[in-house]
## 1
Amino acid sequence: MSGRNNAVIHSNPPKSRSAYAFPTGPRLFRRRLFSHWREQSAIIRTAADWTVLLYIIIPGGLLGGRFYYGFWKGDMPAWTSFLPFMMIPLLFAILLVTGGMVLLLQEGDLLFLRQRQNWINSILLRGIIYSLIVTTLKIAAVFAVLLPFIIRGYGLSPGAAGSLLLLTITAGWSVKLLGHVVKVQRQGFRRWLWLIPAVTVPSGIYIRLALLWENSPLLLLAAAAVYAAVTVWAVRYRLRLRGTFLSDVREDYKQRMRIAGLLLRGVLDKPRPTRYRPWIFRKSQPLLSSTLPESRFTAAGIKALVRNPAHLKLYFAFTGVSMGALFIAPAFLRWILLIVLTLLMCYWLSSFWLLFAGDDYIGILPFTKSQKAEAGSKAIKILILPYTVVCSAVVFIPLYGWLGLLLFVPLGYGLGVFISRIYSTIRLTEH
């Protein structure tokens, strides 16, 4: 009996690490890196054929190489004498704040690699190194293009140019890592409160040092060493972070889909970000004191417009354009223009209400046609009043001075109520 048990035990030996498809973290990262390259290449091929690109790249490369050789051997363009050296650090600072980190993490890692934290740390470290290498190559390529202007146009020595390159690369590392750490730790408006100083402060210091020590290679190298030390600290801090896996995956997906987003920008609308709570009316408090069904329906329509970023942006944009048009228009045309613009705004608000009231979800609610019309008239009146009051201020105050300051509120209110009632009678009662 014991011999049979031993035979069973030895016939099912434990699996070794070589039995897995990717027995180590570095091999898994290498596989994901190759997959990432194939994915980006496939995205580019969907937009342009390689044969067509060759007809563009080869002539463009030859022509660009001829100009580049001329910048080194011939005369510099005349515009280089008018542009200050400050434009070079500013251009690099813009380059530093663009882009992000690609860590090649996936959603399934939360389940399959949860017990292998060393694998996740290995993928994180190699993803950080890969992202910093890409940043280095990007900065070096732009620096190589601008090198004739830096040395011949602005008179920097080769040593100072090399030190500036090292300073730019290390500053780019620091900016990328600091911005990434903030992105995976913060959400909402707090994210921007931390992200803006995390990115702008090192970029501003870089610009200041590049301008102050442009002819001091040793000082530039010392500053680059400080940025390198900040980079090392940021890498160690990033590897010690816990509880940011979902944010890591989200930010990684954004960076990997950046090329696809650029190609589809003119075809598809940008998806709205997922919000667990709206920025405006966060507690869903009642807007109107009345508890009638029509008032509740009116409040729901107002919240639907204000909480939609596209609609709210269009409302403010039209208000701003109207204020500018009224301000520059001749005095005798401002009254007529105010009425016309108010009619246009009321038409858009009534169209929005018809779409809102005609939604399938609203159709489930037991509102009659008259109730919808009454609620729509209230909503249009409330939404048009801020517009008419602000625009009437632009018309009355410059024309009538102190008298206009006293009259623009009641006259703007009356204009908004009058035109909203006209549209409510014409459009809402028909539907």
## 2
Amino acid sequence: MDSGLWTMHLMEGELPTSMSGSCGASINGKLYIFGGFDDKGYSNRLYYVNLRTKTGTYRWKKITNFKGQPPTPRDKLSCWVYKNRLIYFGGYGCRKHNELSDCFDVHDAFWEGQIFWGWHNDVHVFDTTTQTWSQPTIRGGDPPQPRAAHTCAVLGNKGYIFGGRVLFTIIQIFPGKRLCKEPERARKCHEASPIHLSGRKGHLFPNLELELVKEDDDDDDDENQLYQESFENRLRSVMWTQFLQQTRMNDLHCLNLDTWTWSGRINISGEKPRDRSWHTLTPIGEDRLFLFGGLSSDNVPLSDGWIHSIATNGWKQLTHLPKSRPRLWHTACLGQEGEVMVFGGSKDDLLFMDTGHCSDLLIFQTQPYSLLRLCLDCIGKNAALLEKQIPCLPPKLVQEVLKKITFWAAMTHRQERKAETERQSQLQCT
């Protein structure tokens, strides 16, 4: 970042296969990659590479001698880094019939092979010191709905989750249409296959939206009697239709990473971001989170940025961000002076169109720069004018100044090259 130049390093060892939706996290100078999806299906493999090598060559290693039970195969999950541990949450993946549990919302199934696909809300921990997998016992609170393509961030000992893609179940009930034939057989069928009804083992209708379909000749007495019955018995005795619908969320949750208690959905005061998935959430300072981009529930790529304050429990939208630089499925990290750097991803709705991945680096300033940083930038931009004065600076500052000169020279070169490319494109169009 100091010089503004990219460098390419050779990769050796047990390289991870090309995947989408993998989860990457850095801890103690090592980059860990877990899960993902390719043409062979979902993965639960874990790799790491040491980024602090002195040889310039990075060597990947697949972790196979671990202890404990890893998560089931999945992609589009997120991770918290806390106390030398990688703490994974959620994701979309597959499970066998005997692996179905309350932490899994089924989206689709291959009945012959007893394979189910869906969303998770379970928590798994990998201790990088002992190379041990474990699943903590959640001691309280309401967990977030199973989801994927959400984002995670850590502030202190709290792990935050925002948004993501989820599954809703909508049931339409027809009060005047009771089942008259073989009700006992229908009841047994429902009890034997709860997964058909809800998509979640042990929970008939999670995240339910109930829609009562009224008819002109409905009998009020029948309707009143209907609503006095329990919901599950009701569905066994009336005509109903089920719809599974996917949507995206804008909810914020928090998990205490010491006590393993959930906050439940955090009630936000004031305005808040729209629902989304494939976004990023970056901690800035000790009590703020920076949210950027993603894909909305109506499949619109987003370019908005928001800051959430833990102290005030409110969101504030940044109005100075460019509207023409949407990003989704990108990465983000925090710089040395509070700037958030966004790289990669796409600017399109990947479900319907993909014109290519983004290769530019977006830098968002979330707080004023230090006086030293401002002076170094000024010298770097005006190196030709200050050429004779620069050697008079202290040796340590000279090194910093040279990096800034390189940075701004590279920045100017990229801008000139981009302008030339746009000019050539306009000439070809005319």
